[in-house]
């Protein structure tokens, strides 16, 4: 974010104690040096970029190099503002490579950022001339006038000429010294503060991105990072499902088979041992079933292999309430969006089985453009309230994680319709 606040204090008693008063003076006087060095370099570089572009093989790299050089020099000016004024200006971004030398040269010459920074040095030239006259005068003339009572009588006819005024008495000389002292203590620092504020505003507008541009870039970064987090979470779910399916589940299956063989070999001998083996075998089979249910909840393999249609059809078969499924998602969305849609439907069907007392459920998943629409409708008792349970709130949070939304229409006795829309562009 651009920081354009003036660090020079407002109060007269704080002005002289602030180091920024002197740093601002150095910065403003340095504008003239910047114009004579960096400004001339930028002027020459921009002329090279414009004139060399039509020169073909030689002009193309010169144009691109000139564009980059302008950004480099402007970076030095932003660094100077940060050191002397504490002003942080977000840098402009040079145009990215277009993949073609001619296109790169065209972008370099037509780049708005380059011309914006060039304009900074153009406008800095008249300001630097003004500062070069005004600032030394603000600091040097008042001290000279403060000493006027000591030397005015040494001029011809014992009088000093100050523009239209003639100082020919000690009283007038003292008055001039008092006015000069007030000017030095109050007005001169305020002139420095005003000049620093104008210089800072010029740098903010021309050397950096606008506030809206910086905020838009930040929003883009946050959206990208959030999407990366969502994708990494879904990837971790798939990894856990594979580990459970290929590791613990296979070991339990092997254990159940071994216990089954042991039970068959034991026959009718040792009834007590046989009962223990049967109990262990039953526990192993139950653990296998629980792991299978768990892996389906994480990320079923059929979802990755065959998509939403096959995965939701398998969920519908296991549902205690008759379910009719309609899936039309062409082209197929990303695995992350598919996982969210699968989670929404499975959780909704689980809630219907537990609370709705429904006789029939309809599930519809369709893609319209870049939006995946999910609708789960039952003919149960209704009355579902997302604010009273964590299940529906969890669904809403998961959908909101990818800029989607979820609504629940559930009048008492009128069934429940859960609708979610998820962007899948």
TrEMBL record:
CDD domains: HATPase_UhpB-NarQ-NarX-like. Its EC number is 2.7.13.3. Residues 342-423 form the Histidine kinase/HSP90-like ATPase domain. The keyword rRNA-binding does not apply. The keyword Transmembrane helix applies. It is an enzyme of class 2 (transferase). Keywords: ATP-binding, Kinase, Membrane, Nucleotide-binding, Phosphoprotein, Transferase, Transmembrane, Transmembrane helix, Two-component regulatory system. Residues 40-207 form the Putative sensor domain. Residues 403-425 are annotated as: Disordered. It comes from the Bacteria. GO terms for molecular function: kinase activity. The chain crosses the membrane at residues 20-53, 118-139, 172-192. It catalyses: ATP + protein L-histidine = ADP + protein N-phospho-L-histidine. Residues 236-303 form the Signal transduction histidine kinase subgroup 3 dimerisation and phosphoacceptor domain. Pfam families: HATPase_c (PF02518), HisKA_3 (PF07730), Sensor (PF13796). This is histidine kinase. It comes from Kribbella speibonae.
